[in-house]
């Protein structure tokens, strides 16, 4: 570094810039703090200052002001990077101690500089000695004040209280790391917690049908809780040592990962799409003869969700088949409702079909939620048992064979309304 800076020491422009900086100790300190924050290291800036001092490019007092700024700037990085209150208290306490030290030391540099120069063997060593002495003095001065400082920091950054019933965070301790089965059991409890929150959201959707306005906000808050739980659970599962898992534990881990992802998607559709469409439906109204029985469908989804949560524990093949059959039931219901809508448009082409469209959108979204529930719990079990086909497509025809087109049949003359 010294050899690299040597040619710049003789440049008139560099000396002029350093002369301007050296004229104001406060600007010197802030400039070094900015450099240390950008470099994420006070040591790098202190070494640079030592090299500048060794080349006589900055006077000793200016070099010491730069050292103070380097110590202050490096304390900003952990404060910016930390989000948890406990971690921010440590970072903020470090910054406050260093800031107070700079306030005390900066006006005294005129008296401190001759003492350090007399002890040190040269400018570069003087910079290093001052850096060490400054941090040692801060430690000695702050130790007796740790109690009051900790109390102040707790008042400034209190703990964020979790909402009632919120699940505790997952942490991979040593016992769980050595016994993956325990870790997977703990993860299963949190996955079931996600299912419980989704069931509450389905009940709030029923309340929203009757005009319960706050239900929509509760659904959005619950969706955010599901999202947070799912992200934490996925990180927890990803930290498990893959080499320590046997085949059954690997399948269990994959199933839990799929469950959390699918439940998260279901919550997203419910909070963002279904809640919005229910609000539109209530404002526009729906034809009583053709309207969906949304309360019944939401109750059916709740039952399917409870079955999915049970499958996460029991992994029963017959129950998985019953849940998978719900996918076909919702698909047939959607086909029937679409056919009824087309028939209604043929009979009443001039009438407004906004209510019909909203019901179709709601049915599509409820079908999507059911698809996520089936994929979350039934499909992993059926896939492991060999009962789930890789594709619903027919096998490809031999090369050169003429393609067979499906027969075209005319639509029925009249299709009744959906049940």
Automatic annotation (TrEMBL):
Gene3D superfamilies: Phosphate transport system protein phou homolog 2, domain 2. It is a multi-pass membrane protein. It holds the Pfam family Na_Pi_cotrans. The chain crosses the membrane at residues 26-51, 63-80, 92-112, 132-153. Its main location: membrane. It is found in: Cell membrane. Keywords: Cell membrane, Membrane, Transmembrane, Transmembrane helix. This is Na/Pi cotransporter family protein.
């Amino acid at each position: 570094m010294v050899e690299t800076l040597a040619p710049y020491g003789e440049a008139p422009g560099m000396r002029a810039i350093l002369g301007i900086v050296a004229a104001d100790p406060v600007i010197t300190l802030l400039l070094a703090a900015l450099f240390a924050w950008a470099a994420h290291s006070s040591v790098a800036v202190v070494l640079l200052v030592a090299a500048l001092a060794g080349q006589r490019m900055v006077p000793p007092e200016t070099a010491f002001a730069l050292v103070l700024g380097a110590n202050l700037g490096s304390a900003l990085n952990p404060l910016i990077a930390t989000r948890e209150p406990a971690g921010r208290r440590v970072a903020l306490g470090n910054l406050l101690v260093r800031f107070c030290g700079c306030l005390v030391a900066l006006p005294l540099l005129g008296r401190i500089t001759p003492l350090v120069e007399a002890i040190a063997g040269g400018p570069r060593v003087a910079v290093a000695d001052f850096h060490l002495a400054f941090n040692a003095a801060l430690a000695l001065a702050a130790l007796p004040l740790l109690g009051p400082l900790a109390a102040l920091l707790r008042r400034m950054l209190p703990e964020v209280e979790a909402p009632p019933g919120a699940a505790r965070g997952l942490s991979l301790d040593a016992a769980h790391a050595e016994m993956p089965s325990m870790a997977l059991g703990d993860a299963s409890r949190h996955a079931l917690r996600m299912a419980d929150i989704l069931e509450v959201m389905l009940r709030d959707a029923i309340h929203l049908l009757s005009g319960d306005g706050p239900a929509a906000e509760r659904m959005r808050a619950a969706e955010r809780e599901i999202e947070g739980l799912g992200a934490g659970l996925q990180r927890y599962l990803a930290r498990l040592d893959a080499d320590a898992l046997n085949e059954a534990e690997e399948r269990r881990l994959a199933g839990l990962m799929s469950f959390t992802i699918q439940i998260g998607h279901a919550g997203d559709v419910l909070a963002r799409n279904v809640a919005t469409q229910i609000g539109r439906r209530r404002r526009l109204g729906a034809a009583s003869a053709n309207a969906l029985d949304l309360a019944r469908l939401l109750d059916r989804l709740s039952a399917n969700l409870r079955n999915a949560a049970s499958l996460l524990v029991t992994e029963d093949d017959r129950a998985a088949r019953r849940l998978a059959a719900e996918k076909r039931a919702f698909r047939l219901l959607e086909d029937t409702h679409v056919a009824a809508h087309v028939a209604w448009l043929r009979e009443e082409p001039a009438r407004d079909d906004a209510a019909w469209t909203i019901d179709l959108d709601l049915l599509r979204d409820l079908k999507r939620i059911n698809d996520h529930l089936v994929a979350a719990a039934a499909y992993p079990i059926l896939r492991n048992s060999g009962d789930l086909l890789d594709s619903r497509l027919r096998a490809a025809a031999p090369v050169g064979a003429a393609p067979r087109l499906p027969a075209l049949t005319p639509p029925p003359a009249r299709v009744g309304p959906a049940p």
